[in-house]
Amino acid sequence: MLLLLVCSLVQVQDLYRSGEYEQVVEQSAVLLADARTIEDSVEAYRLRGFALVALGRNREAAAAFEGLLDVAPGHELDPETVSPKIRAVFDQVKAGRKPKPEPFVQTEVRTDKVRVGHRASLSVLVPGLAQIRNRKPVRGYLLLGAGAVSVAGLVFTYVNYQQAHDQYLAATELQEIEDRYRTANTWYQARSVSIGTTGAIWLYSLVDALLDL
After folding, report:
1. Residue 178, domain member (yes or no)
2. Domain match, 120 and 199 both
3. What's the domain count of the chain?
4. What is the pLDDT of residue 101?
5. What is the pLDDT of residue 179?
6. pLDDT of res. 212
7. Assigned domain for 35 exists
8. Does residue 82 sit within a domain?
9. Along the chain (213 residues), what's the average pLDDT of each consecutive run of 10 residues?
10. Are 24 and 51 in contact (CB under 8 A)?
11. What pLDDT, on the 0 to 100 scale, is given for residue 120?
């Protein structure tokens, strides 16, 4: 079969050189049906397209060149040996081809990473929520309560410090200034402790949620 195909290719090439374009069109169809390699298909499509252009059947020639480019997308025609008339049809076909879309690759969603991000976000927003969702309600409610108390304490000490600081700035008598300074400093220290306590509770809740995955 391979020997017969080689002989047929040579014969069709001879027919093309002899100007027997109708026979080239007929024989190239047989060659394409029996082609065993990409090279055989490319040559058969080339001869078919060339002959069809010579016959003025450019639409059919374009279909032949489409088939050629399907099996050999990077194929080019030699500008020194192929006539401009043939190259014009071939180039038009090649220019009009749309690139094939990339094959769809399903991205695997890492559920463990999603779970980590979700629980971490819960712990950042409200301490204890991640633990409650993780079926550890005792620890979760303790953290939730501690977080609420720490926030309330932070607000309380902040408001009192601001008031004491304003009163200190408004004092005019020496003894009054000293007394109000001590009061403001006490509330300042209480506020600092509240900030540290609140931050520690939030941090513990976050770390605990991450370690408990």
Report:
1. yes
2. yes
3. 2
4. 60
5. 84
6. 66
7. yes
8. yes
9. 56 89 90 84 91 93 92 90 91 82 57 53 69 80 86 91 86 80 89 90 80 65
10. yes
11. 56
Let me know whether 37 and 83 are in one domain: yes
The answer to whether position 71 is within a domain reads: yes
Give the residue numbers spanning the domain of 25: 2-96
Residue 213 pLDDT: 56
**81 shares a domain with 27:** yes
DSSP assignment of the chain: -HHHHHHHHHHHHHHHHTT-HHHHHHHHHHHHHH--SHHHHHHHHHHHHHHHHHTT-HHHHHHHHHHHHHH-TT----TTTS-HHHHHHHHHHHHHPPPPPPPP-PPPP-HHHHHHHHHHHHHHHSTTHHHHHTT-HHHHHHHHHHHHHHHHHHHHHHHHHHHHHHHHHH--SHHHHHHHHHHHHHHHHHHHHHHHHHHHHHHHHHHHHHHT-
Instruction: List Cβ neighbours of 111 (8 Å cut-off, separation of 6 or more).
Output: none
CATH number at residue 81: 1.25.40.10
